[in-house]
Amino acid sequence: MDVPGQIIVFGLSHHVAPIEVRERVALPESELPVILHQFHRQPNIQEVVILTTCNRTEIYAVATESHLQRQQLFQFLQTIRPEVRGEEEALFYFYEGMTAIQHLFKVAAGMDSMIVGEPQILGQVKEAFTLAQEAGTTATILNKLFLYAIAAGKRVRAETALGKGAISVASAAVELSQKIFRDLSQRKAMIIGAGETGTLVAQHLKEKHIGQLFIVNRTLERAKKLASGLGVQAIPWQELDTFLKDMDIIVGTTSAPAPILTREKHAPILEQHAGIPRLLIDIAVPRDFEESFKELPNIILQDIDDLQAIVEHNLQRRRQELPVAMQIVVEEANKFMAWRNSLQVKPTIVALQARLQALRQAELERFRHRVSEAEFAHLERITQNLINKILHLPLVKLREYSNNGSGINLMRIDVIKEIFGLEDESDEA
After folding, report:
1. Is residue 333 part of a domain?
2. Is 6 considered catalytic here?
3. Sheet architecture: strand order including 45-52
4. Which percentage of the chain shows pLDDT scores above 70?
5. In angstroms, rounded to a whole number, what is the distance separating the alpha carbons of residues 164 and 160?
6. pLDDT, average across residues 335-351
7. 156 with 177, same domain?
8. Are 87 and 126 within one domain?
């Protein structure tokens, strides 16, 4: 019988390695099919999946002689990434068995991410698994492992608040808008500035089905480029005040040295809103809106510090979900291990049944010509019932041992194989 492989993970992440090291180790997706095959051909490597993102590079494998794999994998990594230095080996982690399994499940659930609960990692795990399948470097064990990992990630997102709440200033701005106005489809919003932050806020507002969205920027072409990509309207800078009076939500995201909206000039415009509150969200540094807007009735002004407080509150709430998420990870990891252990015990069960049936048939054949057909059929029923009774407790125990695949239970399986002389049969199975 082939030596059963151990599940291992070898890699590094933002937890242990600075960005310059992660950059040197990163494996471009275009190169992965070739690299997967190279890893797969390494001694004692039976299956392999490579997960590579901006924050981690990890090699998941099924390997024999797993205790030898850390140094072997690092040395091989250096052959494809010569810029990785020998002293950087200390930054890599190496897990095996249940520790490796739970690590993958935590990664898939977003529990190990730089921002706890971020959703992109589950898709990245799926993509890494699919790529390895297409490259032909996975088989029974990793195929099942990654399916369980993806299921664990989905369960954590569905059954906990680990992925709930805004975790960026841009998403916090939109979360705040929803809290105040509830149905954004009936509201108009203006974003002042078409840079990275303005783009993110605009994208989030579109995802939340904002009624109307307007982009205003000092450079009209830049505003038009962002607006056309989202299917919204760009406004010339000189028309900002004209449109301002109709907006429910106004978001400042520029890098202007002085406020864009001042109380003296713009308060009379903003107060023309029939008692409906206006939300001013100032993400700019320096600030785009004068702080004194907070003193005006029906105007809600929130600056970047207010939004950072929302983000930190949401992150803290996510961290509080980690123990519940960990329970799900443990449950799913135990399910996988029960399945994995069943692979080890199934050949033994089949071999034990075959051995006793063979003995039964051999004994029956000795009497076939001494009894009538009716008597022989009766003997067959009696002996089959006897075999069933003899097998009942051993089979119950074997399945029990497989569900709890501790070292001592795996030894008990080996004892049963030895007692009944099943080594050859289970090896062949």
Report:
1. no
2. no
3. 45-52, 56-63, 6-13, 93-96
4. 94
5. 8
6. 80
7. no
8. yes
Closest CA to 46 of 145, 124, 150, 130: 145
pLDDT tens digits along 274-290: 677 899 999 998 899 99
- Beta-carbon contacts of 406 under 8 Å, excluding residues fewer than 6 positions away, are none
Catalytic residue among 1, 34, 54, 309: 54
Counted residue by residue, the chain has a size of: 429
Q: What is the structure's pLDDT at 66?
A: 73
Instruction: Choose the final residue of a domain: 163, 189, 210.
Output: 163
403 and 285 part of one domain: no
pLDDT value at position 427?
Answer: 47
Strand, helix or coil at 11? Answer: strand
* From 11-25, 88-102, 371-385, 405-419, the region with the lowest mean pLDDT: 405-419
63: containing domain = 6-163
Beta carbons within 8 Å of 37's beta carbon, 6+ residues apart: 135, 137
Tokens of 122: 């589950």
What is the CATH classification number for the domain harbouring 248? 3.40.50.720
Asked if 120 and 179 sit in the same domain, the reply is no
Residue 424, pLDDT > 50, answer: yes
pLDDT at 154 over 90: yes
